[in-house]
Amino acid sequence: MSSTPGLTSEAQLRYLLQWFGEFSELQREDFLPVLAAARGGKADQLAATLAALSCADKPVSLFQCRIKLFNEWYPTWTANEQDRLIKGVSDMDAEFGIKLQDILTNGPHMNGELNGTNENHNNLEEANEEWRNNEEPEQENEQLPQENVPVEIAAAS
């Protein structure tokens, strides 16, 4: 059942799809973790995401109102309606859909990680090791001569 009198879950779904179509790229980025947390049933992650979206010293934005309604409506929908929202937003923005599926499959991304694992860190270590192996061996006591070379700096006009 709907928490909004007179508004069916079908109508709520249509509103959300329409709003998603109106979201800017940044708003879609903000909506991504909200939808992923709701879809994954992670209330603690959802609460943390929502706390980051609130601005205590500013009036509530239209986007924040829409997110609040999403959070009220989504849990009341059937699994089929929830699936239709996921399919609808993924059809509207394929890249968003890919990111959403990635988060649902691999968990939220952390800084420096590709997919919630240390894969990026491991790849960086492998690349550094390969680079070190391709370097020429250093001469231990070799010192480069240090010369004072005058440098002329010309100002561009």
Q: What is the 3D shape? A: globular
Strand elements, count: 0
Q: What share of the residues lie within helices? A: 55-70%
Number of helices: 7
What structural class should be given to the helix and strand makeup? Answer: mainly alpha
> Which spans have pLDDT < 50 for at least 5 consecutive residues?
113-124, 135-140
- Rg, Å, rounded: 25 Å
Distance between the termini: 71 Å
- Taking all residues together, what is the mean pLDDT? 74
Percentage beta strand = under 5%
Largest sheet: none
Summarize the helix and strand pattern as letters: HHHHHHH
Outline the structure in words.
The chain has a domain at about 10-105. The chain has seven helices and no strands. The chain is an all-alpha fold and about 160 residues long. It has helices at about 10-20, 25-40, 45-55, 60-75, 80-90, 95-105, 120-135. It is about 60% helix and about 0% strand.
Main attributes?
157 residues, mainly alpha
Task: Write a concise synopsis of the structure shown.
With 157 residues, the protein is mainly α.
Describe the SSE topology.
Layout: H1 9-22, H2 25-39, H3 43-53, H4 62-73, H5 79-92, H6 94-106, H7 119-134
